[in-house]
Amino acid sequence: MRLWLAPLDGITNFQFRNCLCRHVGGIDNFITPFLPVQEKSKLNVRKWKDLWPRNNACRPTTPQLMGNNPAHFLDTLNELHQEYGYTSFNWNIGCPVDQVVRRTRGCGVMPHPDIVESVVRAVTEQTPYHFSLKMRLGLHDKSESLQILDKMQDYPLEYIVIHPRLGEQLYEGVPDLDAFQECLNHTAHRVVYSGDVWTVGDYERLQERFPSVQDWMLGRPILCNPFLAEEIKEMDTGDVKERFLRYYQHYADELLETRKEKSTLFILKELWHYYASFAGIDASELKTLLRINDFSPFFALSLEYLR
Asked: What fold, for 2-232?
């Protein structure tokens, strides 16, 4: 059984991943938030600080990319390998954000299985790299994932991450587990399950229903409870409240080393929508915290909530 950290755009940056590695155990694989593939003349991967090897203490870490042009994928993968030595890459065809989908990227690619095949064919036939997909059931219909999986049968993908919701659902509703089983029936590739593993009980129920799945991706649940992976693996979590406080303080310090207080405040406010459940504060207390627009008083009150 392997546990993965899901890529969450704007949240699971290298500072977040490094702090998680330092303070929390149980996570075996890390995928970075997506970056856009580009043609060689426009590429400057040295600007992609999130992929700098010296910024990534977590291993293994896999860059996630987004796009739909086979030539741009080849240029970008080759550049990342040459500059940083990466040999494994993940393609995001599951992002449901409207401005991404409208550009036929992310989940917007899923109604076009020929585009998916053209990219996968180019990468697997013209490079030596490991390549994988992160997808949903489809944008509008679950048949989209089945068509893609059928086309992928003859390609040596490293694995396929499947989130059992449609793109048009965003994160609403419940995962369609029957549709996920259909996906399993349509592929011989290694499948990583992603979606709503909020508790140890959730994991145990899903593992019992899908015994062939050995890889489980944790995204938003890790934000609510950073120690979930340890709990699933039955590790000794110790005093989680004290450990979380050290983790939180370290993460804020890491952010402040590379960002201004205003930017750090924005990131921490976003995370407190998840941290509130761990801290045990109610909606009124969270609202009070989020109304604060200066870093120092915000951080002081947030520490008070955690103690």
From this structure: TIM Barrel (3.20.20)
